[in-house]
């Protein structure tokens, strides 16, 4: 649901995500706890001599993610434990906590939307199991020799059930559903290690090779491709290598505008720390609150502002990877090289099958002077797509431009917080009247494009005019900054909303693709229709919600993101039903000229289509790299191939 | 007529609907009111509202057409504007101008005409309901059988009656010759296509884009005849694939979610063109369509043509059919607006689909008792006792029903009455005198030459055959097995492999004459065995097929049923071996075979009149070409037929029941 795309930035204008004061408050608490733990570990560290250990010694860990993630994050849902949607006693939706712009607000229209869209009722609850049942977790099968040697290195590790379970899954529907239901786990990691730096990783990988232990790198844990699932057939000890403590910016090079960063850093920390020096990467996938730099590299992530900053493959200058054969890196930081196929491209998208990304040198930019949201309403989806195509053709896309279909537009509206004054209400009413009555837009057809401009003020305003002029030729009407901003809110709260849905018999998931421009409309229509039809055929009793948006534009095509949710009351095995429908939807995507994935990756969820997607020769090429780099399948998560 | 449900025993899934007579209401209420009533059909949910004129603009400005225009312009050196203009002219000539007022006029006029001509026009209303549902969900293609000019007027009439979206209909250009009428048809939704435009890229592009645009926009259901032309023999014709390819392609290219194909079976108790067809088959060219010709045809109005049954079959989803057969992603790497020859996989899918649809049409053709009687009479050309005919008709009825024939046999009427009223309706074809029933032979005026007499007899045989042909699809497979059994051994016992080879030979031989789905030989063989066993005509202990004692009448009826085809093909073979000169051209072939056959008949060496039918002659030639026994060679402007006499000779032998050595047979198969 959430790996990429974006979430609101932390800059002056973007205030929707963790507001600075709140997040630093919670971080303070978390870090206090961390320091205590670090204190215990210090002893081990001191025993270790040599330069590497010194290098590794973390200056007070500034990271958001503690080793015990469950202390601040949900063990069976999305995000922070203190932030969640719920229907209060009056039946009104609320978002708890203090971290987000919507936090503490009442959302009066959400209940109606929810009940009407899904045929659900706030009186029909399907609550989750409150706590992890330790007996449902298979006992750790440890490789004693490995553990002994690991102890000697002083690298912290754990084999507590809670730590292991937390790293046994990503955020696929079936994974979260199973956690909520308290299902028995088939296979979870046997232990978790927390390296502090590159050389820790080198040691761990060496030991893993020595003792034939299976390593599964774990970054932000936001995978939605079953990439973190432990292969049930794996008989060796499985060690989850949690990179979260490798979270420092090692240096910033202002002359070349690059920063050298440890790959475990999560998006929000990276941006916050760079901001302190006046820079940013501009890489903002929707999951950036939790996803990590290493994870972005390993899955070929895409950020919402890629039009200005580029996708991850455009941003990285240098990658350091620890593999069973040793460390891969390049000899220089030349901005482009003609030295045979780019070895970075073996790493980008390797999904943890070759090694662990430990350090990345990536481009940085000065924080933009000015940011402005915007939105355009179109009479229908066709007009909106035509406009985005024209914008792409003229290569004048703003930092972000997204087109939400009518379903998503209405969804966005359901998330409007209670309006504080009669006046705002009145203005809203006027706007609605103008668009639907005066301009003749059908409220059940109209769609909205959300925009984010960045740069110096004058240029932003110029750029804005250019885009609005193009939009006007396709019947688009400017619809204000507020609507634009709300569109972006939706993308990061949607994951929290899925948890709310699951409390009331609604399952939901998202998936994405990329597709040539001329096929965008056909693909969207056919995939929606396929989902509706499959749901009907598979006995789903209620009309499903199928919604899509065009989230990225390229010269030759676009990225399309689908949401799909349905009320599963009356179904014996909703997850299975869901999976069959998603499978059919993916087949439909491929038949309509869409790709297997734009940025979520393949994991284990979409492996079956790899041959079809890149030819069996292509799979063979990848396999031969894997065989060379990792002959004993130490990185045995079995993703991709 | 009382509605009744006919239930198939062959396939328990094949449950057929009952019928309603739509003329009944017309006989009881005002036609004018009916023609002027409110007409508000449900439309396709994805419809892009557009007028006939806008449609033309969309087509002319489409990427598809623009691409071809540029291509043609580059090849010919003409400016694109000129080619564009040409395209516009083609479109103008082609396009329909569907107008509700014209439709209303037809609704009025046809009501009057139908009431005079027909006793009943029966429609399965459940089929209409299914169609109504389908029209809303997906683009719909209506695929009626084609036996008469009446077909498409009738279709539109029925759809209007049931308040369904009126179709746009692909019609042959020949109608355009009928000045006023052509325009009327155009305004009732017909669009006109040239009969042949093989190499004309531009024409093809305009035509296919025009059809696809209407399909994609959900403008209206698209109607065309898979058989391509009216079947003069009342046998279904092997399907033509051009239009089907066009309407299926938008699905493969992802431009529509699905396309629904609706097979429609239109069965006439008596076809208006009955004797016209027979003459045409005998080489009297069909009259050119002209308005005055149509007016002359008014005398038709004074006759009774019985009932029409129109059966709207279950809509067939192209998406479901293509599941697992065509990989749509093979279309991903090529721009969709560039015309491309369909891939092999696609071609065979479309071919297969076309055959299946035609078989569905056949399955739902309503058969009248007369069809059974005609089959019997043709095996007894010298005439039959009325009582024998009656008795055998009853027997045949039982057989037909157990083979799932869609037989419309009047409820509760005594058999004798059914037989006599059938004879009455078809008094132009058969008569009873002195308790004997025989074919009527038209009385010629003036002195009669032997050739003329023969010709007259042939007209009545071919007319009668057109009724027998209607039931052939029911009996075809077991009948071919019966012939195979007869050929494979005169003993009662036949080994499987030889029998199958023989069956497969016949199957291949006759696949131009009958609807045999490509690749279905084994399945058809099994079906034939199953049906013969089911009716007790044969038993199958282990690997053998043995005729039972009670099976004799069935098997001999089946042998008799296919006899004219076997003989006809043999005559063609014999002609090619014995008479055909070197350098026989394709053009000469039909008259030459005809006069060869006439000679044989006059000499008393042949009693089969059906070989005089150009349809059979063409089909036989096509089969021989397919089997490489004859080759076509183009010399200058002439197409010459080169005969491999050895091969033709041995085919003749097998057809004649002389079983060649196993080896030789296998080599050919």
UniProtKB/TrEMBL annotation, chain A:
Substrate binds at residue 498. Its cofactor is FAD. It is found in: Peroxisome membrane. Residues 15-26 have a biased composition (Low complexity). Residues 185-367 form the FAD-binding PCMH-type domain. Gene3D superfamilies: 3.30.160.650, 3.30.300.330, 3.30.465.10, 3.30.70.3450, Uridine Diphospho-n-acetylenolpyruvylglucosamine Reductase, domain 2, Vanillyl-alcohol Oxidase, Chain A, domain 4. It is an enzyme of class 2 (transferase). Pfam families: FAD-oxidase_C, FAD_binding_4. Pathway: Glycerolipid metabolism; ether lipid biosynthesis; Lipid metabolism. One of its GO terms (molecular function) is alkylglycerone-phosphate synthase activity. Its EC number is 2.5.1.26. Keywords: Acetylation, FAD, Flavoprotein, Lipid biosynthesis, Lipid metabolism, Membrane, Peroxisome, Phosphoprotein, Transferase, Transit peptide. The record marks 402 as: Important for enzyme activity. GO terms for cellular component: peroxisomal membrane. Residues 1-29 are annotated as: Disordered. Its main location: membrane. FAD binds at residues 217-223, 299-302, 351-357. GO terms for biological process: ether lipid biosynthetic process. It comes from the Eukaryota. It catalyses: 1-hexadecanoylglycerone 3-phosphate + a long-chain fatty acid = a 1-acylglycerone 3-phosphate + hexadecanoate; hexadecan-1-ol + 1-hexadecanoylglycerone 3-phosphate = 1-O-hexadecylglycerone 3-phosphate + hexadecanoate + H(+); a long chain fatty alcohol + a 1-acylglycerone 3-phosphate = a 1-O-alkylglycerone 3-phosphate + a long-chain fatty acid + H(+). The active site is at residue 561. Homodimer. Catalyzes the exchange of an acyl for a long-chain alkyl group and the formation of the ether bond in the biosynthesis of ether phospholipids. Belongs to the FAD-binding oxidoreductase/transferase type 4 family. This is Alkylglycerone-phosphate synthase. It comes from Oncorhynchus mykiss (Rainbow trout).
From TrEMBL, chain B:
Residues 140-269 form the Phospholipid/glycerol acyltransferase domain. Pfam families: Acyltransferase, GPAT_C. Its main location: membrane. The keyword Cell inner membrane does not apply. GO terms for biological process: ether lipid biosynthetic process; fatty acid metabolic process; phospholipid biosynthetic process; triglyceride biosynthetic process. One of its GO terms (cellular component) is mitochondrial membrane. Coiled coil: none annotated. Pathway: Phospholipid metabolism. GO terms for molecular function: glycerol-3-phosphate O-acyltransferase activity; glycerone-phosphate O-acyltransferase activity. It is found in: Membrane. InterPro entries: GPAT/DHAPAT, GPAT/DHAPAT_C, GPAT/DHAPAT_LPLAT, Plipid/glycerol_acylTrfase. The keyword Membrane applies. Keywords: Acyltransferase, Membrane, Transferase. It comes from the Eukaryota. Belongs to the GPAT/DAPAT family. This is Glyceronephosphate O-acyltransferase. It comes from Oncorhynchus mykiss (Rainbow trout).
């Amino acid at each position: 649901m959430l790996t990429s795309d974006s979430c609101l930035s932390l800059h002056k204008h973007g205030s929707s995500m963790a507001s600075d004061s709140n997040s630093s408050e919670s971080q303070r608490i978390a870090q206090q706890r961390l320091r205590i733990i670090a204190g215990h570990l210090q002893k081990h560290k001191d025993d270790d001599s040599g330069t590497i250990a010194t290098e590794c010694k973390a200056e007070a860990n500034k990271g958001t993610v503690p080793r015990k993630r469950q202390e601040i994050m949900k063990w069976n849902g999305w995000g922070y434990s203190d932030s969640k949607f719920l229907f209060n006693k009056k039946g009104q939706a609320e978002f708890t906590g203090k971290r987000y712009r919507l936090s503490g607000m009442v959302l009066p229209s959400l209940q109606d939307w929810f009940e009407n869209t899904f045929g659900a009722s706030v009186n029909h609850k399907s609550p989750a199991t409150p706590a992890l049942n330790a007996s449902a977790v298979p006992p750790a099968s440890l490789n004693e020799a490995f553990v002994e040697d690991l102890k000697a290195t002083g690298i912290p590790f754990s084999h507590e059930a809670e730590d292991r379970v937390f790293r046994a899954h990503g955020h696929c529907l079936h994974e979260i559903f199973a956690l909520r239901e308290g299902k028995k786990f088939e296979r979870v990691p046997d232990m978790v290690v927390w390296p502090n730096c590159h050389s820790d990783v080198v040691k761990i990988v060496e030991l893993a090779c020595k003792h034939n232990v299976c390593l599964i790198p774990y970054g932000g844990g936001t995978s939605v491709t079953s990439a973190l699932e432990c292969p049930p057939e794996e008989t060796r000890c499985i060690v989850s290598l949690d990179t979260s403590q490798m979270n420092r910016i090692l240096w910033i090079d202002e002359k070349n505008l690059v920063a050298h960063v440890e790959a475990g850093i999560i998006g929000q920390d990276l941006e916050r720390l760079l901001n302190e020096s006046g820079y940013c990467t501009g890489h903002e996938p929707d999951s950036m609150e939790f996803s990590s730099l290493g994870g972005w590299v390993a899955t070929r992530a895409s950020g919402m502002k890629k039009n200005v900053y580029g996708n991850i493959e455009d941003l990285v200058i240098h990658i350091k990877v620890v593999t069973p054969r040793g460390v891969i890196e390049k000899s220089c930081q030349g901005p482009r090289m003609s030295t045979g196929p780019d070895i970075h491209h073996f790493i980008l998208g390797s999904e943890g099958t070759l090694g662990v990304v430990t350090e990345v040198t990536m481009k940085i930019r000065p924080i933009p002077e000015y940011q402005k949201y915007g939105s355009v309403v179109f009479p229908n989806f066709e007009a909106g797509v035509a406009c985005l195509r024209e914008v792409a053709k003229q290569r004048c896309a703003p930092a972000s431009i997204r087109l939400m279909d009518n379903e998503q537009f209405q969804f966005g509206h359901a998330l409007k917080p209670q309006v504080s004054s009669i006046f705002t209400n009145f203005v809203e009413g006027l706007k609605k009247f103008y668009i639907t009555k005066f301009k003749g837009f059908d409220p059940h057809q109209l769609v909205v494009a959300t925009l984010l401009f960045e740069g110096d003020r004058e240029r932003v305003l110029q750029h804005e005019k250019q885009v609005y002029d193009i939009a006007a030729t396709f019947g688009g009407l400017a619809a204000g900054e507020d609507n634009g901003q709300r569109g972006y809110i939706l993308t990061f709260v949607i994951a929290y909303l899925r948890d709310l849905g699951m409390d009331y018999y609604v399952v939901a998931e998202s998936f994405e693709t990329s597709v040539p421009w001329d096929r965008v409309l056909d693909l969207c229509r056919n995939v929606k229709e396929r989902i509706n039809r499959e749901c009907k055929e598979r006995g789903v009793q209620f009309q499903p919600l199928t919604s899509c948006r065009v989230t990225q534009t390229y010269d030759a095509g676009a990225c399309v993101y689908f949401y799909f949710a349905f009320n599963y009351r009356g179904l014996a095995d909703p997850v299975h039903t869901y999976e069959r429908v998603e499978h059919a939807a993916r087949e439909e995507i491929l038949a309509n000229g869409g790709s297997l994935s734009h940025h979520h990756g393949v994991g284990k969820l979409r492996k079956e289509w790899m041959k079809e997607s890149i030819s069996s020769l292509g799979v063979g090429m990848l396999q031969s790299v894997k065989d060379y780099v990792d002959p004993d399948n130490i990185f045995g998560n079995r993703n991709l191939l | 007529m009382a509605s009744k449900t006919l239930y198939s025993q062959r396939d328990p899934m094949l449950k057929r609907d009952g019928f309603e007579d739509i003329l009944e209401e017309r006989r009881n209420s005002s036609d004018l009111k009916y023609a002027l009533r409110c007409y508000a059909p449900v439309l396709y949910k994805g419809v892009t509202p557009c007028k006939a004129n806008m449609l033309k603009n969309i087509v002319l400005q489409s990427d598809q057409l623009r691409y071809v225009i540029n291509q043609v312009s580059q090849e010919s050196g003409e400016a694109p504007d000129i080619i564009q203009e040409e395209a516009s002219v083609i479109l103008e000539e082609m396009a329909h101008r569907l107008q509700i007022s014209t439709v209303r006029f037809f609704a009025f006029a046809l009501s009057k005409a139908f009431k005079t001509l027909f006793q009943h026009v029966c429609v399965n209303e459940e089929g209409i309901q299914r169609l109504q549902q389908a029209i809303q969900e997906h683009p719909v293609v209506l695929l009626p059988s084609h036996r008469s000019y009446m077909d498409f007027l009738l279709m539109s009439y029925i759809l209007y009656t049931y308040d369904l979206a009126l179709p746009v209909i692909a019609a042959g250009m020949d109608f355009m010759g009928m000045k006023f009428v052509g325009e009327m048809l155009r305004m009732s939704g017909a669009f006109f296509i040239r009969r042949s435009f093989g190499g004309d890229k531009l024409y093809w592009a305009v035509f296919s884009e025009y059809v696809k645009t209407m399909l994609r926009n959900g403008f209206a259901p698209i109607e065309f005849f898979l058989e391509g032309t009216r079947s003069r023999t009342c046998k279904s014709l092997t399907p033509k694939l051009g239009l089907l390819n066009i309407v299926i392609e938008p699905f493969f290219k992802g431009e529509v979610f699905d396309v629904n194909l609706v097979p429609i079976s239109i069965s006439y108790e008596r076809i208006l063109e009955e004797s016209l067809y027979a003459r045409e088959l005998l080489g009297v060219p069909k009259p050119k369509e002209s308005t005055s010709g149509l007016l002359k045809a008014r005398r038709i109005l004074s006759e009774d043509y019985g009932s029409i049954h129109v059966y709207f079959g279950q809509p067939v989803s192209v998406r479901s059919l293509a599941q697992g057969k065509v990989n749509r992603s093979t279309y991903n790497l090529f721009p969709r607006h560039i015309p491309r020859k369909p891939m092999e996989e696609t071609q065979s899918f479309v071919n297969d689909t076309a055959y299946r649809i035609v078989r569905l049409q056949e399955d739902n053709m309503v058969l009248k008792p007369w069809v059974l009687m005609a089959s019997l009479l043709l095996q007894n050309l010298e005439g039959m006792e009325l009582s024998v005919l009656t008795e055998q008709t009853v027997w045949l009825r039982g057989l037909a029903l157990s083979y799932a024939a869609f037989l419309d046999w009047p409820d509760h009427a005594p058999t004798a009455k059914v037989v006599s009223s059938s004879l009455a309706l078809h008094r132009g074809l058969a008569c009873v005198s002195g308790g004997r029933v025989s074919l009527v032979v038209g009385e010629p005026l003036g002195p009669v030459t032997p050739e003329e007499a023969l010709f007259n007899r042939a007209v009545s045989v071919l007319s009668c055959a057109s009724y027998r042909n209607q039931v052939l699809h029911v009996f075809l497979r077991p009948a071919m097995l019966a012939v195979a059994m007869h050929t494979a051994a005169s003993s009662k016992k036949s080994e499987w492999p030889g029998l199958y080879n023989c069956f497969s030979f016949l199957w291949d031989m006759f696949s131009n004459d009958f609807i045999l789905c490509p690749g279905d030989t084994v399945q058809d063989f099994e079906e034939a065995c199953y049906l013969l066993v089911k009716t007790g005509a044969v038993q199958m202990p282990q690997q053998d097929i043995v005729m039972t004692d009670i099976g004799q009448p069935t098997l001999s009826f089946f042998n008799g049923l296919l006899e004219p085809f076997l003989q006809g093909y043999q005559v063609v073979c014999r002609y090619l071996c014995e008479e055909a000169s070197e350098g026989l051209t394709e053009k000469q072939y039909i008259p030459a075979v005809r006069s060869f056959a006439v000679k044989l008949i006059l000499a008393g060496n042949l009693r089969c009149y059906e070989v005089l039918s150009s349809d059979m002659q063409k089909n036989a030639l096509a089969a021989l070409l397919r089997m490489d026994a004859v080759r076509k060679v183009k010399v200058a402007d002439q197409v010459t037929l080169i005969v491999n006499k050895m091969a033709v000779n041995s085919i003749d032998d097998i057809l004649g029941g002389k079983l060649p050595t196993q080896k030789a047979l296998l080599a050919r198969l």
